[in-house]
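Job type: complex structure
Entries:
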Amino acid sequence: MSRQISGRPVLRVSLFITCYNDTLFPNTGKAVVRVLERLGHTVDFPAGQTCCGQMHWNTGYQAEALPLLSRFVEQFRGAEAVVVPSSSCVAMMRDHYPKMAEELADVKLKAEVAELLPNVYEFSEFLTKRLGLEDVGAYYPHRVTYHASCHGLRNLGLGDGPQRLLKAVRGIDLVEIAGLEQCCGFGGTFAVKNAEVSSAMLAEKTTAILNTKAEACTACDNSCLMHIQGALHRQRTGVQTVHLAEILAGDEVGA
Amino acid sequence: MSGTALDPRTAPTFPMAALTAMGDTQLRKNVRHATDVIQAKRARVVNEMPDWQALRESGKQIRQHTMEHLDYYLEEFEKNCTAAGGVVHWARDAAEARQIIVTLVKGLGATEVIKIKSMTTEEIQLNTALEAAGVHAYETDLAELIIQLGHDQPSHIVVPALHKNRQQIREIFKREMNLPELGESPQDLADAARTFLREKFLRVKTGVSGANFLIAETGGVCVVESEGNGRMCLTLPETLITVAGIDKVVPRFADLEVLLQLLPRSATGERMNPYNSVWTGVDVNGDGPKAFHVILMDNARTEILGDLEGRQTLNCIRCGACQNACPVYRQTGGHAYGSVYAGPIGAILTPQLQQMHHSQSLPYASSLCGACYEVCPVKINIPEVLIHLRNKVVKQNGMLNPEALAMRMMGIIFKSEGKFRAAQRLGRMAEAPLVRKDGRGQGWIGWLPGLLGGWTQVRDLQSMPEETFRDWWEKRESSKKQGVPRG
């Protein structure tokens, strides 16, 4: 018998933290756990997880990415829902895992991927689409602008889901950024392989952020934010970046 | 930009060329302005179409079907074009195409030709070959005329002089047309070009064109344009020579119903092109040229066709929407791509046209943001092809360079939780000498060595936290077990 929270089933959510969040942004993971548990769901963390393979795949190292597919499936096989606080990693899985399984000519793996993928959600998407929520009971009394990462916007089709979650946060002063659909210039290894162009793209993005007079820029991807924050800090702007989960985890007790 | 033709075989790498281009403030302003204007126009006329996505899908299906049966449709085109009085030539590569055209022109005893804007003739550097054979080619498309008179190179497939503004164009016309008093209004500039070109239209007896579409069913050729100068070149000369890549064929006349909706809206933000010309062979007793030649050129296209993942590149209908939407192109303009095909489509087409012997930096000239795929009227998944080509480049480069070694090491690390944890610890130790604490105790890295140095050119990097997420999670779980059980 499944448990329920005010009429809704309690889900056992398996967290795929992603390699870079695990290493560089543990607070995002903690925030995801806090939000999901506050909503009454349980969270587990398959210990053997590492990386989705995006960096290798997108840079052209297909041979190195392929084994990471089987690893992901082993770790998350049978999960009720897999939540990932990174749109680009989810896009990697949705856009490329079926083809990768095909390439490996592994019929069983292909079937498992097909079964698992519909249960894999980017964090904001899990809240808005799987749980049908907008107000998750958060409090964050700051002026904030939202950066739509390209993978969330185009590959996952998150639409205004993240903004709807933000609008429901108490105390928030949400300001729209100009050029919302414009890439920030991160692009994974692009940021170092084409550092000059990446910097030029970043300059346009930080200008747009500063024009909003926000205290913080948020997004569903710490990868974009790490890049944006890098410049905001280098220029000593005093503007912070913060993952969406960390805003949604804010409450008046913790504030 | 010099008068030297853009040649992928000798072009510098994209990051190097981009650095040069980005130093040109005027160019960057012009490119930003022009792409913003065209994008806004495109958005307006695309958003008014309720069936735009269905149209894109139809466009994709037509192109995909054509590529799957390209041999059949090319032969059908040849048969029908010949029956209508055209002469069809086949060219294996750029050199053969150039040779056929030069021979035809010389055979006519011509010393001049008038040209319709054609990226295919740019691809094969036709003007240089004609010049070497003592034949002067007059570009008649306004933008191509600006490029030619300015001893410049095209930077966009639809708007080749997009990187020039009105004042710069005025300077070129003043100098090259000897018009010291020329004004700078669009009217002044158009008048100057008109006067300059009209005389050529009436005098020159040989026209050279590209093609937007070759219609297999009828043997007809279609060219669309905005100015009407193309129409002049198609109707006034006695001989018309068309050169087209073999990818330009479409099965039926009716396919234009889809493609001529997709193309102008995507390319120039117009509902339809002001001039749509379709001609089939010649009418010896009627109007127009009395001799018509069409050169069907391969130039590596069958190689691309043979690669199942790269093949969709050939579906391109040359609208340039991906260039306007691209945030990389927006910063660099077109010349940085070292090819007449710039922007996202150039980043996938050029290396493949070079059969991966040159332009290996181009597949990396993208943040994979997907804006190109979103606007492509025939749904070419450009990011997917970019990744596919990156894989080819990686295989070419072997595993003994620093990047490949690092990537292989990361691959090994990600295969085991233990190794991953060890790498996280090692990373924290390795970065320690580079970290400086700010006033709040947060560590920052302002300089990184080697490949990672690109990051710290303009960005700081937050140092690694004391505890990874998995460390925190483990501690939490074990304290839960020791404490009061939940539930």
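Summary: The first helix of chain A runs from residue 19 to 24. The mean pLDDT of chain A is 96.
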